[in-house]
Amino acid sequence: MREFILKASKSLDKLDKVQIGRLVSDLLKDHELLEMVLSSVDRGIMVTDENFKVTLANRHIRRFLPLKAGSPLEKNLWETLEDPHIGEFIHEVLINQDNLREKHFPLDLQGRSIILSISILPLAKDGRVRGNLLYVEDITQKKAEEARMRRVESIVSLTTLTAGIAHEIKNPLGSMGIYLQLMQKVLNQHCGGCKEELLGYLEVLNEEVERLNSIVVDYLFAVKPLDTNPEPCKINQIIEELVEFVHVELDQQGISVVMKLDDNIPQLSLDEKLMKQVLLNLIKNASAAMEQGGRLVISTGMHEGHAMVSLKDNGKGIPDELKSKIFEPYFTTRDTGTGLGLTLVYKIIKEHGGEIEVKSKENRGSTFTLILPLPQKQRKLITQREESIDL
Length: 391
Ligand SMILES: Nc1ncnc2c1ncn2[C@@H]1O[C@H](COP(=O)(O)OP(=O)(O)O)[C@@H](O)[C@H]1O
Ligand SMILES: [Mg+2]
Description:
Layout: H1 2-10, H2 17-40, E1 44-49, E2 54-57, H3 61-64, H4 84-95, E3 102-109, E4 112-125, E5 128-138, H5 140-189, H6 194-223, E6 231-233, H7 235-252, E7 255-260, E8 268-270, H8 272-289, E9 294-303, E10 306-313, H9 341-351, E11 355-361, E12 365-373, H10 376-390
Parallel strand pairs: 7-9
Antiparallel strand pairs: 1-2, 1-5, 3-4, 4-5, 6-8, 9-10, 10-12, 11-12
Helix pairs in contact: 1-2, 5-6, 7-8, 8-9
Bound molecules: adenosine-5'-diphosphate and magnesium ion.
Adenosine-5'-diphosphate binds next to helix 8 and helix 9.
């Protein structure tokens, strides 16, 4: 068809009405096909001519990219966009020929945090650039999956760390041995004024034992497989007991705790001790993020057949570039942090067949949401209830 149009366009003056009619109808079909292809691609696409004026935009573009009101057609590409950073990037690429032609932008789209990949490709014909193609893709899921894979990999690599830990344990153990021998020697000599000396050695021993203990507890907790003993539990009760336990300390730090617990949550199959550890780690992180005081809202509820527990703080938040790292072992931004708190949280929740979602805005706060599965029986009951509602 393209060949016919090309041929016909060269001898327009020789065409009769019927032939022109056929040409127009073929052109229309061609155009429809192009529109169909563009709208079935699940990406945002805009095309410009060589003067950077938009000549074509598919219907998905607005879904991905906030555009200014009115049609984008005939405007400079960078002037059609709401977001000044994306506009600036496009301007740099097109006008200043910046080599970096793809960039990722975190955006807030109708209350949803997304990451967009924006690329600009030159459209060349006969060795000349005839226009540009703007290609917009929502890579939020892809990024989350990459981060998840990285987490899994780092957890696997943790096992290799056991060798390092054994080494760490060996040194204090060695010095403990030496001091023990010294103690024996002193005792053997039965020296009268040996009390002070003995106490000094014992103190060193104690310090070494404590060091050993913290290394083993912190590090091995993250490395060893968890021994979970799930039993029917009331999550609201677990939360209430834990808040009772920590609220004095939080009060002193100027943090008020608000609980919004949903009474309709069925019993969940949880390891109570581990679940308390999860909540405690999240509360500790929240309180560390609200050094000047703040508000911690702990809520529970049901969503799409799952139980949800969320902890919302109004602390310093997590910068976008660090969000994918916080679950990695040893990742910490705190001087006294071990970077193992969230690794353990992740591990425990995974053991329970659950998921964790994190939403955070720098200087505004963070929300950690635990999504926990219902026990089989409860799930069936809920489905049955839903089915009977459908009838
Ligand atoms: N509620 C929160 N608000 C802000 N940042 C947080 C929050 N929770 C976790 N983080 C970030 O994640 C990092 C890792 O947390 P975690 O694994 O518990 O280790 P640690 O608490 O020892 O630093 C923290 O250092 C902090 O930067
Ligand atoms: Mg922590």
